[in-house]
What does this fold into?
Amino acid sequence: MSDFWQSIVVLDSPHSAPRLAEIEISVMSFLWDRDIVARDGVEETPGFPDKKWYASRPNAARCVHTPEKWNWPYCDLDLKMPHGLTIDRRKRPMSYGDCNVEQSISCPECLQWQEDLPWHESPLSDAEHALEDSGSGPLTCPACGKVNDIRYWLGDPPFAVGKLAFEVWNWPKLKSEFLRELSAAAHCELQRVEYLT
Ligand SMILES: [Zn+2]
It folds into this structure.
């Protein structure tokens, strides 16, 4: 049985580290004040106080489609924390999405699509590595020859580039209305991406 993840990614822009810390506080305050996740996180791995796991609270059901399917089909009820939220902070931007599916991408200049590229061995993986090494991931369009950073390409399925993401595990699909409210509260652009592990 697979686990269903959704990342709420703070889209990368020249945000300073203090601005990202502010966004993190705004997002978590929103989730805590509305009783969407528990205030007290538990260490996901003992000894790593930076990486905490916040259990889902009853109002999380208001943020998702089909809350009646909350425990199905993805949830393992034997686990102590059947579902919750964790914060992923990175020093350099990375792409969030499903690296196990074939990825179609559309050039931001000529809008031409390249279909079904594998993330592991294609221009995508070069751009991804450059992104992690240097903070920018140039990708050349075979149709028009223009070079644009991977973050400006449109993806199908969607992917998003950022240094900060809030990841929920085994929640049903998040409502776009919830994401809009969260984005307004944090004064930044957020994008939801999903993947299975
Ligand atoms: Zn192009």
Observations:
- The longest strand covers residues 84-96.
- Confidence is low (pLDDT under 50) at residues 72-81.
- The domain at 4-92+160-196 is CATH 3.30.310 (TATA-Binding Protein).
